[in-house]
Amino acid sequence: MDETKCLEIGIYGYQPSSFCDYPHKSASVFFTSGCNMSCSYCHNINIMNSGRLLSPEEVYSCLRHAVTNRLSDAIVVSGGEPTLQGENLKHFLRFIRQTCSKSVKLDTNGTNYGLLKEIFEEKLVDFVAMDVKGRFDGYEKFCYSSNPDHLYKTVDLILKSGVKHEFRCTVGEEFDKKDFHFINSYFPDIKLQQYRSVKVN
């Protein structure tokens, strides 16, 4: 295994221990750089505005810590939007899979159907959480470009993947009646989450 490939991923921050990012598990959390959305209520805006990526040496150190950390049961890759990392994300997840038996969770906004399909096919994650911003035909409020059909395909992919999952939504000022109707009808069991800001190394 070429460890250098997994270090090419863009990481803004690392949280050694979290009790709210993986259901019923303690977890070490990595925050990837870049996002294709601009949400006013972004939980991790302080990370996105930090302007500094971890060096490959720092990424490796954090990764080794996450793998060996006895105080965490799982590893979470969050963002930003992790799937913007492309192949580097898969290298990163493979390294975790091949070096420890901890559960792995991926957070995503669901806009990269193709990469998620590849990740599921390789069984690189045990849990996926998709953030739903509102009705799919109104995503222009949150992102620079949107494809409602792609989002529906991603939801269907997740539901049929056999991977544990949750759909979650943060209700922001951009929400309107159409958003609430869509959420209630299409995601009756969705997890509504409250805004929180976290600080990481």
Strand and helix map with partners:
Blueprint: H1 3-6, E1 11-22, E2 25-32, H2 45-48, H3 56-68, E3 74-78, H4 87-99, E4 103-108, H5 113-121, E5 127-131, H6 148-160, E6 164-169, H7 177-186, E7 191-192
Parallel strand pairs: 2-3, 3-4, 4-5, 5-6, 6-7
Antiparallel strand pairs: 1-2
InterPro entries: Aldolase_TIM, NrdG2, Radical_SAM_PqqE_MftC-like, rSAM, rSAM_sf
Protein name: Anaerobic ribonucleoside-triphosphate reductase activating protein
Domain Radical SAM core: 21-201
Give the overall shape. globular
Would you list the SSEs in sequence order as H and E?
HEEHHEHEHEHEHE
Low-pLDDT segments, ≥5 res: none
User: Average pLDDT value?
Assistant: 87
The number of distinct helices, counting runs of at least 4 residues, comes to 7
CATH architecture: Alpha-Beta Barrel
The percent range for helix content is 25-40%
How many structural domains can be distinguished in the coordinates?
A: 1
- Overall radius of gyration: 16 Å
Describe the strand arrangement of the main beta sheet, using strand numbers.
1-2-3-4-5-6-7
Structural class by secondary-structure content: alpha/beta
> Which strand-content bin applies to the residues?
15-25%
| Major sheet details | 7 strands, mixed
Say what the CATH topology is: TIM Barrel
Task: Determine the CATH superfamily.
Answer: Aldolase class I
Tell how many strands the DSSP assignment holds: 7
N- to C-terminal separation?
28 Å
The CATH class turns out to be Alpha Beta
